[in-house]
Amino acid sequence: MKEIDALEIELKVFARWYPRNWLAIPLAMGVQFKNIPETKPFERCVARPGSSRDVTGKSCEVDALFLEREGEFKVAGVVEAALVVVPFPSMWRKLAPCLEIRNRLEGIGQEELNRVSLGIFVSPTNTPILSRFEVSAEYLHNFDTHSSDLRPVLFVGGSI
């Protein structure tokens, strides 16, 4: 079996504007570096001998991947903007509940993909580590293949 290397790195510059104490508008611009091989699922089967020479069988793995093409290194742009609403900024001392709508255009100059998400999240306000616990729905649209998808998202993360 062959080892397959994949690389995906993203560097972004962020800016946040707070026009009101209950509203934030984060903006980001950046660049993506990708080297992801193209794979295709297939069914891999192995013959199994039986107790008699006249009886044989097979067992199959249905989620095997076939390397269709080695990855090629690609560089693309990313632009992201969001509206974040904190509906009750003074009611919560330790947690900030938020509502967010985000639009992200990635793969600029390559295979372009638009991600629009609507989510709710809470973030602690009394610790130096910024955490985020989010539940959202994400709509993806691939401009090259004209395909779309709707996905549920659960995000738990943090930064210092």
What's the CATH architecture of the largest domain?
Answer: Beta Barrel
Number of domains: 2
Broad CATH class of the largest domain: Mainly Beta
Rg, alpha carbons: 23 Å
Note the gap between the termini. 40 Å
Q: What do we call the CATH topology of the largest domain?
A: Porin
* Fraction of residues in helix: under 10%
Sequence-ordered SSE layout with sheet pairings:
Elements: E1 7-20, E2 23-35, E3 38-49, E4 56-69, E5 74-85, E6 95-108, E7 113-124, E8 130-142, E9 147-159
Antiparallel strand pairs: 1-2, 2-5, 3-4, 5-6, 6-7, 7-8, 8-9
List keywords for this structure.
single chain, 160 residues, mainly beta, Porin, 7-stranded antiparallel β-sheet, two-stranded antiparallel ribbon, 0% helix, 73% strand, elongated
Question: Could you characterize what this model shows?
Answer:
By secondary structure, this protein is mainly β. It has two domains: 7-36 and 74-159, Beta Barrel (Porin); 37-70, no CATH class. Helices cover 0% and strands 73% of the residues. It has strands at residues 7-20, 23-35, 38-49, 56-69, 74-85, 95-108, 113-124, 130-142, 147-159. The strands form two sheets. It has a seven-stranded antiparallel beta sheet with strand order 1-2-5-6-7-8-9, with no helix packed on it. β1 (7-20) and β2 (23-35) form a beta hairpin.
